[in-house]
Specification:
The complex is a heterodimer of chains A (435) and B (134). Chain A is of the alpha/beta class and 435 residues long. Chain A is built from eleven helices and 21 strands. The relative contact order of chain A is 0.12. Helices cover 31% and strands 42% of the residues of chain B. Chain B is built from four helices and six strands; from the N terminus they run βαββαβαββα. Classes of the chains: A alpha/beta (435), B alpha+beta (134). Chains A and B meet through α11 and β20 of A and β1 and β3 of B. Bound molecules: zinc ion (ZN).
Chain lengths: 435, 134
């Protein structure tokens, strides 16, 4: 199988634009009619549904961001009655509340097809055994890949993340041919095999579909060498649908965007003006074939560029290159989105703890670690060792329950961490994930 | 009962030396000293002539320091000297947080620094048993 949906994936550009135009018109009409906050934004921008005739008119529409989801938490932006939704997912937001996303059965079906296209584009087919080692749950990774692989008719092994030795055992015993997980977890699996003297020859793996966190070409080469596979990049964020928005093809030179469903623009970071192909800016997506949450011109904060040059694989779909950074201070640790502001609010919720902190993210043995340096304050310092330790434990407990991350807390002398005048450096990321 | 100066120590090479140098620079003599440490930080505890002044001095230099009430008990420097005191505490259910000793002995007596949860009560018991305290 070369393509999952040949008609769409190799569609001539003009036909694609006609399809996108029609879908955009429908979506804008529904958003204007059923989503009051969006109607207000369109009215403020002085644009009416009738102004949107072709896909090029999309630039007349206002931008949306995670802020709009936060203001309308949890489901104030959906364009269907709640009863019509069949699935909820969530990812962490900049404050305590998560970004909640909803799907109708149509949306889940479209999403599954997009993931199936991605899996085929990564060289797999219905006869493959696909091990899904992304986390299952509110996170879109696990169920996203799962439904896609099932839609394709492949054999799915839903191991979810963690329990690495059993993961490896299943992979060997069931002859998994494709592995889906975060790239750092793939490296961790490779490390675990080496440490336990499990030869890579026991694996039947041919390829891996990796995403949910930034990774470099060096990491790709390392994974390919250690696991003796081809490693494919898959892109997606929960607000748009989850994994499956775009994926590498055999050429591994940019991810083909499923642009019949997710229209992509690159905009200037400062002016918000659309940029021509090849120029780097913020990635903006519009869901033009979604019922429940068809966010339009949603700013992803990812920085990258696109190309419509002909790809050797035969697909005509626009390609999104690997993101090279973020416009905000979000960090992604083991596939979980973490904002410094969330860590700050945890610290401030512990009485007496100073608001001055520094987050240090590192990677040891392909395992991400978070250390939070906190300034000791006279209020929490006592002559007893267990005094400060109980504060550290309280902070750790809260981080674990609010952010689902385990962090090491280190106390430092007061006045030694950068102050928040202007833009203080709150995060030191030693992982070098962007090239 | 006397005041101990308790000082936060960041886990960083040379930090103890920096603080003791600061004290030496001010002509502050250390009568007793102890360091407790964990993997990520430590606590320096010292007994000095003028604890309030020393604590202020350190705070002005950005050091996190606090005053703590501790017992300064004169114990005969002989076998069983400390054991007898600990027995009094045990008999009266007084929990000890930590103990350390001073730098010098005088007239056959050693000065022992003891931190307990309720120092007033402990001091009364020791005085009743005939001990002298600083
Ligand atoms: Zn291609």
């Amino acid at each position: 199988m070369k393509y999952y949906n040949e008609a769409i994936e190799t569609m001539p550009r003009d036909a694609m634009r006609a399809l996108q135009s029609e879908r955009l018109r429908n979506t804008v009409e529904r958003m204007y009619a059923y989503v009051a906050p969006y109607r207000r934004l369109m009215d403020e921008a002085g644009v009416k549904p009738s102004d949107i005739r072709t896909i090029d008119d999309i630039t007349k529409l206002p931008f949306l961001s995670s802020e709009n989801l936060r203001e309308n938490y949890p489901l104030g932006m959906i364009a269907v009655p709640r009863e019509k939704t069949t699935r909820i997912h969530a990812s962490s937001g900049t404050t305590g509340k998560p970004k909640v996303v909803a799907y109708t059965q149509h949306d889940v079906d479209v999403w599954s097809e997009c993931v199936a296209r991605c899996i085929v584009s990564a060289g797999a087919g219905e006869n493959d055994v696909i091990q899904v080692a992304y986390g299952y749950g509110l996170f879109t990774g696990g169920l996203g890949l799962h439904y896609g692989a099932e839609n394709l008719g492949a054999t799915v092994i839903p191991t979810s993340s963690g329990n690495t030795l059993r993961q490896i055992e299943m992979m060997i015993d069931l002859g998994s041919t494709y592995l889906c997980c975060t790239p750092s977890y793939a490296l961790y699996i490779a490390d675990t095999m080496e440490k336990n003297n499990i030869p890579v020859e026991l694996l039947s793996l041919k390829g891996g579909i990796f995403g949910a966190e930034p990774w470099t070409e060096e990491m790709r080469r390392e994974i390919e060498k250690c696991l003796n596979i081809k490693a494919y990049d898959i892109y997606g964020i929960a607000e748009i649908t989850g994994p499956g928005v775009a994926c590498d093809c055999e050429c591994q030179n940019g991810m083909h965007v499923n642009e019949d469903n997710f229209y992509i623009e690159i905009i200037d970071l400062v002016t918000g003006e659309p940029l021509p192909d090849g120029e780097r800016g913020e990635v903006v997506f519009s869901c033009i074939n979604k019922e429940a949450l068809p966010l339009l011109r949603y700013r992803t904060h990812d920085i990258s560029y696109i190309t419509r040059e002909k790809c050797e694989c035969g697909r005509t779909l626009v390609r999104l290159m690997k993101p090279s950074g973020r416009t905000d201070d979000m960090i992604i640790v083991r596939g979980i989105n973490v904002f410094p502001s969330q860590i700050e609010s945890v610290l401030l919720s512990v009485k007496g703890v100073s608001p001055h902190y520094l987050i240090i993210v590192d990677r040891h043995d392909n395992h991400d670690t978070i250390e939070v340096k906190v300034e000791v304050s006279p209020e929490i310092f006592s002559d007893k060792i267990r005094g400060l330790q109980s504060y550290a434990e309280e902070i750790q407990r809260k981080m674990d329950s609010v952010l689902q991350i385990s962090a090491k807390i280190t106390f430092v002398e007061p006045g030694t961490l950068p102050r928040s005048e202007g833009k203080a450096k709150r995060v030191i990321d030693n992982r070098k994930l962007y090239t | 009962m006397i005041k101990q100066v308790s000082i936060f120590l960041e886990n960083r090479a040379g930090r103890v030396a920096e603080i003791t140098e600061m004290l030496a620079g001010m002509g502050i003599n250390l009568d007793a000293i102890s360091i407790a440490d964990t993997e990520s930080y430590g606590i320096l505890r010292i007994i000095v002539e003028n604890p309030e002044q020393t604590c202020d001095f350190l705070r002005k230099r950005g050091v996190t320091a606090t005053l703590t009430d501790v017992l300064d008990v004169n114990v005969r420097h002989e076998p069983g000297g400390l054991a007898r005191i600990l027995k009094i505490f045990a008999d009266n259910s007084i929990t000890i947080e930590y103990i350390y000793t001073s730098m010098s002995t005088k007239d056959g007596y050693a000065s022992i620094i003891i931190r307990v949860e309720h120092p007033e009560e402990a001091e009364e018991l020791l005085r009743a048993a005939g001990y002298t305290l600083g």
